[in-house]
Input
Amino acid sequence: MEAPVTTSATPIKKVVILGGGTAGWMSAALLKKLLGNTIDIELIESDAIGTIGVGEATIPPIQLLNKVLGINEEAFLAETKATIKLAIKFENWRVPGESYYHTFGSAGQPMAFGQFHHYLQRAQQAFDVTKTIWDYDLNYLCAEQGKFAQINTQNPVVELPYAYHFDAGLYAKFLRKLSEQMAVKRTEGTVEQVHQDSTNGFVKSLVLKSGEQIDGDLFIDCSGFRGLLTQQTLNTGFDDWSHWLPCDRAIAVPSKRHEKTVPYTRSIAHSAGWQWRIPLQHRNGNGLVYSSHHYSDQQATDILLSNLDSEAIGEPNYIKFTTGRRRKQWHRNVVAVGLSSGFLEPLESTSIHLIQSAIVRLVHLFPHHGIESSLVDEYNKQSKTEFEQIRDFLILHYHVNERTDSQFWRDMRYMNIPDSLQHKIELFKSDGRIFREQNDLFAESSWLQVMIGQGIQPKDYHPIANALSAEELRQMLVRLEQIKHEPLGKLPSHDRFLAKYTRG
Ligand SMILES: Cc1cc2nc3c(=O)[nH]c(=O)nc-3n(C[C@H](O)[C@H](O)[C@H](O)COP(=O)(O)OP(=O)(O)OC[C@H]3O[C@@H](n4cnc5c(N)ncnc54)[C@H](O)[C@@H]3O)c2cc1C
Output
């Protein structure tokens, strides 16, 4: 029978990380950097098992991670073969043949107590203005024109937030070097046995195929989808969300570098899934995320290979997954990070960010003096909320669609959605109100773009937009359009930026 005890007074001195994928090396580097010599870290990775080998698009908070780790951006861009990401372009999502962008920027300007889109909607209704939110978004303008450079003004109206596309394998190598410089010990080998304390079920040590035994006080399970510690050993359970997000397969294949590197990810919807196109310096990353109830693997492979914009240069990599999350992402002395903690499909490039936020959360709640249930419960509560908020945002893309070409899209449109998402949609539909939940990764601007992009037009705008006179409103829009367009003439093309800032 399972031991009921979930706390321990043992101080945490030695942390063992199982897994050397993106999750393992990000965890090692960040924990060591932030906790320094208060802990020893040993990371175990198996060359025989390898890593999942996908995950190329990121979101802006990765810049903070790199900054905290003291990473030089030029070296990072060169060594990970990175390009710049200003947005995701969603093609065919609302209806085939149409597209919209979800940018990292925001439309217009910050307004005291109001939101720009209400003012724009008033202008659209009152003066037949045909401009959209994207016409007032510098990220969109730069993405469309293929331009980029870092903009360092202190002016919140002229910002160009960005993230990266990179080779995840090279990023893990980069972080490994950094971690080893900070005295993280790396051990190569395959874990074959897990020893648990018979009194409380805590993990005591991992035994490698070679017979070597590695002891630890706290274990970070970065073993990928297999969840060797969190699931196979502690059986923490899984919340399955595939009734909302039914895609359960992916195929990834690299193709030759395209002559023009666009500063955005392309997400192209097909009849039962969607395809990503990610430009890197040396190649393109491509993949298809799909539902195995609608496509056979062969059909999916044919769809992907016939929709590349350059020649394939590798064999397809087939990946199975179930969308959802581990019920207890921290249980006893095991914290699941990365794919072992759950998986949300890569539609909004959130997995690498979830690794970052898991480690930051662990540092905030680090059990220096022993594992207490208050720390574990708080960690699990925050992780649950974070996963659920991202889940809702992903469902929005699928649910609000007007596609009539396949059963898949019709099913998505008529499915029951979580109450939390239904509430958000209702608020927006009536008069464009959007509220950011506390700590929601996606700000109002993200929800706005995807709601409008997927086809929700609010019936009305907030009356706060009526406080300006018609002339003041007209002038504000003209001024903002000028301000947003002004930097474009001075910015280099994305390709020129890359040539200047990279060595390779
Ligand atoms: C199709 C797809 C596309 C994705 N695209 C994106 C994206 O664009 N952006 C994004 O942010 N994320 C993306 N992700 C997620 C991203 O790939 C992962 O979050 C990231 O790679 C983390 O993986 P991991 O380190 O948890 O697991 P893995 O890469 O699978 O690493 C597992 C590690 O555990 C080790 N291991 C396992 N078992 C043992 C054992 N018994 N003994 C010793 N070692 C062991 C392995 O050797 C390996 O080192 C995508 C994921 C998928 C499936």
About this structure: The domain at 14-82+166-242+326-390 is CATH 3.50.50.60 (FAD/NAD(P)-binding domain). The pocket of flavin-adenine dinucleotide is lined by residues 18-24, 44-46, 49-52, 54-58, 168, 190-191, 222-224, 226, 228, 250, 252, 287, 319, 321, 338-339, 346, 349, 351-352 (CB under 6 Å). DSSP finds 14 helices and 21 strands in the chain.
